[in-house]
User: What shape does this take?
Amino acid sequence: HHRFQNFGSGCLNRDKQVITYLSQYMMVDPIQIKEEQKRLGFTPELYINEKALVTTPFHVYDNQSDPKSQGGSCGMGIGSTKKYWLQYGNDAIFASDLIIGNRSILIDKLHLLKERMLVKLQHRNFDRNIYWYLPLKQLINEKLHLRPSCIREGLHAIPYIHKSDIIFESSQGMLLDEWWGDYPYNTWSSVGWCNVAEIIKELPTYMYTYVNFDLTLIGVTRSYLTRHGKGSFETGKENIDNPYELNSTGTYQGKFKTKLLNKWLLEYSWNTLNCEIENSNIKPEKEMHVTCLD
Assistant: This one.
């Protein structure tokens, strides 16, 4: 079994040459990408938008050591990366900064980030791991680098994109969306239709000649509700027994919970998607798929 984090699951079908593209709305962790490649045993074809935010070990540690993140966070540094960008703007590290020619910019940004994190973490129970002691040049050379050829300016720059079917895969469910979810127990990402619509709108006009925009939005739900950690959850029968369920209680996420599917929450999630579709002026066909019925 493999849990995908940075690559589309279609890459397991190696005969089809499935390409993974991480958009500007992703937080990219070069260390996690390399570790996942090792677990897969091969290197899938990967492209990354140059504007994607980069998550470093300093973001991860900030996330994991924050008491407010316990029992709901995945502990991967996502929230910390987004908060840093919101607070410091272009001081944040972007995928374009990982290109070799930008090495001095990356060192300056990492130095600023590290110093700011040290100030932020001084009042926490703070045990530094190896990344805090590595010289920044060594950290970059050994951990924070990606092939320059994988950094692209947009979806239109991906090879053969005008001949391909494209799957836009969301990172979370709508009940965890940064705008529609159960605040403060939600994620730092917009996970519905709005980002997809923006990516499509940014395609150069010449591509409209080649790309057939036959769009279908597929909402997917298990036949029961799931949640990790804190946050409201409908009362009712707990612990739906699915012997094939692979989620479990996580170190930072907290307890994994299951309950019967709730019609109101399902309708709410579907209606939030409809709101985003109406606001985008790009109208896909819509389907809902239910899994785990067996």
